[in-house]
Amino acid sequence: MAGTGSRGRAERRGAGELESAVLAALWATERPLTPAEIQQDIGGALAYNTVHTILKRLYDKGLVLRDADGRRGAYRPAKNAAELTAQAMHAALDRGPDPIAALRHFVTGLSTEEERALRALLAEEGL
C-alpha cells in the first residue's frame, strides 16, 4: 500500500494537533478560508477530506463559523487565540476542586515577563 510506510506513520498527527493547526491557519489571516486554502497552508500532504472533517468538528464545538458573506464553504475563527486560551483557563479552574491552589501553582510558573504583565493588568483593574 502506498503511503503506509514508516514515514507516513511518523508524520501522523492527532485530532487535537490538527485542530490546533487549522485554528492557527485561520488566526493568521483576516479573511475566511476555504478547506482547500487551509489544506495548502498547513501542508498539502494532508487530505482535503481530513481538513473538512476537522473543520466540521471545530464548527460543532463552536470554535469556527461558516462565512455568510458569499464565500461558500469558507470558515473563520469564532474567537481569537487569546479569547480561546482564556476560556480554556477558566474551564480548567472550574473543573478543579481548589481553583485558588491551581492559580497559585500557575502563577509560580510564570516567567518574569509574564509576571510583570500580570501585575500590570491587576494594577489597571485596581486589584
Brief descriptors of the model:
127 residues, mainly alpha, two-stranded antiparallel sheet, disordered N terminus
Q: How would you characterize this protein structure?
A:
The chain has helices at residues 6-11, 15-27, 35-42, 48-60, 81-95, 99-108, 112-124; strands at residues 64-66, 75-77. Strands 1-2 form a two-stranded antiparallel ribbon. With 127 residues, it is mostly helical. The chain folds into 2 domains: 6-77, Orthogonal Bundle (Arc Repressor Mutant, subunit A); 81-124. A hairpin with an 8-residue loop joins strand 1 (64-66) and strand 2. It has 7 helices and 2 strands. It is elongated, with a radius of gyration of 19 Å. Helix 2 (15-27) packs across helix 3 (35-42) and helix 3 packs across helix 4 (48-60).
Write the layout of secondary structure elements.
Elements: H1 6-11, H2 15-27, H3 35-42, H4 48-60, E1 64-66, E2 75-77, H5 81-95, H6 99-108, H7 112-124
Antiparallel strand pairs: 1-2
Quick one: CATH superfamily of the largest domain?
Winged helix-like DNA-binding domain superfamily/Winged helix DNA-binding domain
CATH class of the largest domain: Mainly Alpha
Termini separation comes to 62 Å
Estimate percent helicity.
55-70%
Average per-residue pLDDT, rounded, comes to 86
- How many structural domains can be distinguished in the coordinates? 2
CATH architectural name of the largest domain: Orthogonal Bundle
Structure summarized in a few sentences:
With 127 residues, this protein is mainly α. 61% of the residues lie in helices and 5% in strands. It folds into two domains: 6-77, Orthogonal Bundle (Arc Repressor Mutant, subunit A); 81-124.
